[in-house]
Design brief:
Strand order of the largest sheet: 1-3-2
Shape: globular
Distance between the termini: 27 Å
Number of strands: 3
Amino acid sequence: MAVAPDTAADLVYQIFDLQRAVRCISTANVRGQDTGVALQGVLRFVGEGETRATRLAERLGVSAPVLSRHIADLEEHGLVVRRQDPDDGRAQLVALTPLGAEKLRHIEEQRTAVLQDYLRDWSEEDAGDTAKSLRRLTESLKKSARATAAGATNEQKTLEESLNG
């Protein structure tokens, strides 16, 4: 059974509202830190394991030059290292340094504590159900994005455009 237009419209609104709330919280929580929201996002993805810079740019949805600047900033802080990919000398691999792993751990602990405080009136079941729903939504949107990249229908493109603003 398909989702009704009014429900889809409400979901789009709720997603945008959630994005605004997260952006406000993130901005408030990075004041005075040496890495901003964008650099923390790069750090998080690099923290999943050594990866090619091109793959990282794709996952983050940024251009190679933008990613290169972010990586250079993180290198300057001693948080990541780059090296040539032994399988392809033209490509670079990016990995966390021990300092970067510690920084990422600290950032994630701080974010967890802040969110726990904001959700103090939620039950464990409510939080778990929400996480499950968000994972499902994210996976559906990722599948749609992959389909769009492979040559999607106009209907899928319209959804992507409406979600992207």
